[in-house]
């Protein structure tokens, strides 16, 4: 497959914190690609390095070495506005990711202001309606919304810049089970409608199997297995750790 078909290309991604006896090698020389229009899942236990990979991609983590290419172009540790616009992140906790004293209108327009873009009349209301929320929610505060509604706002905020790539950091783990499916279905619908590319990290294999085309298993900063979502239903992994995760998802 040509590199022009890749939304993301990673070569030798490495992240190390501290020195000497306090040295923590969080991400270890990762190589992987994400095809355009694909949903790639990364699974593993807490602390294995999943979220750090997303932080490197989005530009929040600058202490990395290796090579990152986004839509064919290499990116450095300091991103241009255009590079930042291409990848947007939906965080794990929708309440923590929204400023409690800012109305929803300000939360959604913040990325536009940061990029120096004008906010057109009705843009916030349109963004809310595209994620299944009434336009008048723009005048509410985060505490006036449910967890699922806050996560919809977070998705609207990520999509307002029309990014081709969305990074999803455990996007439903802070939600009640009853609303998890609603948010996942919304993400699926937006992906199909706008031909988006997703990278999703999670420890929940049922979520990953529902959303992803391909799954990478991460342990201690490395990828130890790769399989299709059908392998989870078949309870079949190559690496012993991956097999353990699959078996545990059925318990």
Can you describe this structure?
The chain is built from 9 helices and 10 strands. The relative contact order is 0.17. The strands form 2 sheets. A 6-stranded mixed beta sheet has the order 6-7-8-3-9-10, sandwiched between helices. A 4-stranded antiparallel beta sheet has the order 2-1-4-5. The chain is an alpha/beta fold and 251 residues long. The model has no long low-confidence stretch (mean pLDDT 92). It has one domain: P-loop containing nucleotide triphosphate hydrolases (Rossmann fold, 3-Layer(aba) Sandwich).
Topology summary:
Elements: E1 6-17, E2 24-35, E3 39-43, H1 50-58, E4 64-70, E5 73-75, H2 81-86, E6 87-90, H3 104-114, H4 123-130, H5 147-159, E7 165-169, H6 177-194, E8 197-202, H7 205-211, E9 214-219, E10 222-227, H8 230-233, H9 240-249
Parallel strand pairs: 3-8, 3-9, 6-7, 7-8
Antiparallel strand pairs: 1-2, 1-4, 4-5, 9-10
Helix pairs in contact: 3-5, 5-6
Look up the CATH topology.
Rossmann fold
Contiguous uncertain segments of 5+ residues: none
Question: How many separate helices?
Answer: 9
Oligomer: single chain
Average predicted confidence as pLDDT: 92
Give me the CATH architecture, please: 3-Layer(aba) Sandwich
Q: First CA to last CA: what distance?
A: 38 Å
Strand order of the largest sheet: 6-7-8-3-9-10
Strand percentage: 25-35%
Radius of gyration: 18 Å
- Classified in CATH, the superfamily is P-loop containing nucleotide triphosphate hydrolases
Total beta strand runs? 10
Structural class: alpha/beta
**Helix-residue proportion:** 25-40%
- N-to-C SSE series? EEEHEEHEHHHEHEHEEHH
């Amino acid at each position: 497959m040509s590199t022009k078909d890749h939304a993301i290309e990673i070569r030798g991604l490495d992240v190390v914190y501290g020195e000497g006896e306090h040295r923590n090698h969080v991400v270890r020389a990762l190589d992987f690609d994400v095809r355009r229009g694909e949903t790639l899942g990364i699974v593993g236990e807490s602390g294995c390095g999943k979220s750090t990979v997303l932080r490197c991609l989005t530009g929040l983590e600058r202490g990395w070495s290796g090579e990152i290419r986004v839509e064919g172009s290499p990116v450095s540790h300091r991103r241009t506005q255009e590079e930042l616009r291409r990848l947007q992140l939906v965080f794990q906790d929708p309440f923590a990711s929204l400023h409690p004293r800012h109305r929803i209108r300000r939360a959604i327009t913040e990325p536009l202001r940061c990029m120096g873009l004008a906010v057109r009349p009705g843009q916030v209301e349109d963004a809310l309606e595209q994620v299944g929320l009434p336009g008048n929610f723009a005048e509410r505060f985060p505490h006036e919304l449910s967890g699922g509604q806050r996560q919809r706002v977070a998705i609207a905020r990520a999509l307002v810049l029309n990014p081709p790539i969305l990074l999803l950091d455990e996007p439903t783990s802070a939600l009640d089970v009853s609303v998890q499916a609603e948010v996942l279905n919304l993400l699926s619908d937006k992906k199909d409608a706008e031909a988006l590319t997703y990278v999703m990290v999670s420890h929940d294999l049922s979520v990953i199997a529902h959303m992803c085309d391909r799954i990478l298993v991460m342990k201690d900063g490395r990828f130890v297995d790769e399989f299709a979502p059908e392998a989870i239903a078949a309870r079949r992994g190559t690496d012993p750790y991956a097999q353990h995760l699959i078996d545990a998802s059925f318990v």
